[in-house]
Design goal:
The chain is built from five helices and two strands; from the N terminus they run H-H-H-E-H-E-H. By secondary structure, the protein is mostly helical.
Length: 140
């Protein structure tokens, strides 16, 4: 079988599965707990955070783990676009972005939805025009 739905979920790399199974087979961990297992879980969490931070050349405290892409997208959009802010997106955006954009708009953000052109893609000149128009109107 050839799997082509990687935009929805991606097959787990066997090396990643092997690394995860080591800890998933253990007792339930709560990194916020003060007991021994909690401290072990916290150490695992911090080690993972440091490893990922080093890959992206950022500080470990800049790494935030989320449970899903929807949660991550909401975190980014809501932290960057508030009342008076401006978001430019596509009319064909994933619901995780599209619905959040609509909600931000209800709360006072300006949202510009660009219509896709041929092959369902937004053209760079559309995005450029939207940015120039926003600047002209004093939007961030």
């Amino acid at each position: 079988m050839i799997y082509l739905d990687n935009s929805a979920t991606t097959l787990l790399d066997p090396a990643v599965l092997k690394a995860m199974l080591k800890d998933l087979k253990g007792p339930p961990y709560n990194p916020s707990a003060s007991h021994k297992l909690g401290r072990q879980a916290f150490a695992l969490l911090m080690a993972a955070r440091e490893k990922i931070a080093s890959l992206f050349k950022v500080q470990p405290e800049e790494i935030i783990f989320t449970a899903s892409a929807t949660e991550a997208l909401n975190l980014v959009l809501r932290s960057q676009v508030g009342p008076g802010g401006h978001l430019i997106s596509s009319e064909l955006e994933h619901n995780a972005v599209y619905n959040t954009a609509l909600e931000l708009e209800k709360k006072g953000a300006k949202v510009t939805f660009l219509a896709p052109q041929k092959a369902g893609a937004v053209q760079s000149d559309q995005a450029e025009e939207a940015i120039l128009q926003a600047q002209k109107n004093g939007l961030p």
